[in-house]
């Protein structure tokens, strides 16, 4: 007989699964302690009681919050599923597969899952779940890992088609050994970092002993991110097959790699030479009110055509603090751009390694990124943006010989910005989920796309 306690426990389990997935698929930072976030119009609060390096976080009761931040009620799975579904569809373009009339929704999956007592839209293989539930201590976990690597992982690696690192990673690693390690860590059976270090040692031994496995194993050990499968957020998602049957079609996305030992610290952000009538200088913050540059950036950011995409129509004091903070750090460099002697736009140049985007793709330590706003309304729609973007990308590659890529992440809904980047020679490499939007990952390499 199923009791009320069982039902409440399963409800929290489903809600926790959905929340873990949403945090991962939107690359939202997680830390132990009180967490508040908004998904669409739904405000949520929960205590993160276990912060997992593999994303297998554990939460206390998950509450719906009112406008003041006070808890109203426990969040039910259906409510969270509806919020995630609505937000994911809103993040995507209207003609994306997730928005097709026959694609189904996350709620369709949930209604189908309830009688089956399923809790995860993309559950792990049953034998791995059984391992995660049955292993009782660290010694047993290490024995399982040894057997798993030698008997299951190694043969699969050696039999995998070359050049499909993404498919192999999702099938064998993130939804294999790392997922089990995360579940064991959440249960308190092991310290995840210890078992992850053990796995890394075993993988290095495989790479040394089996040349036909080295291509994949080296990728697992050296890439900053690993491929996983998304089931809540992504333009390509579907929840129904052509037959109408409930069937989740997941899409790949990148997650932080717990096996990666990190990269040497990259230098600060260089100042490029733009040429062709352009000028570029770092913002200056002067005096009690910030000075003319702060006032100029504030004016631009409060112009409607900028505010709608940047969402930073802040008062002058906040912009003064923001710009001073950037200038004092090594993450980003705020700049004023001029054309023909007139200031026309604002740039933020940044090292990807120190940015939120580092969680989203397999970046190099020297990758540079750019945010751009053409502030003057009469300079919009005249090719100024694309000309500037190409000049900035080429200038950054010239001033930093170790930089192989300049990247950007405009909102997928900002067609004008995506188009300007494309016209400037940036190629669209992927769609990435961020805490407040889905972005087109635009990349300008030393050999620009199409050249």
From TrEMBL:
It comes from the Bacteria. Residues 281-333 form the Acyltransferase MbtK/IucB-like conserved domain. InterPro entries: Acyl_CoA_acyltransferase, Acyltransferase_MbtK/IucB-like. Acyltransferase required for the direct transfer of medium- to long-chain fatty acyl moieties from a carrier protein (MbtL) on to the epsilon-amino group of lysine residue in the mycobactin core. GO terms for biological process: siderophore biosynthetic process. Gene3D superfamilies: 3.40.630.30. Pathway: Siderophore biosynthesis; mycobactin biosynthesis. Pfam families: Acetyltransf_8. One of its GO terms (molecular function) is N-acyltransferase activity. This is Lysine N-acyltransferase MbtK. SUPFAM superfamilies: Acyl-CoA N-acyltransferases (Nat).
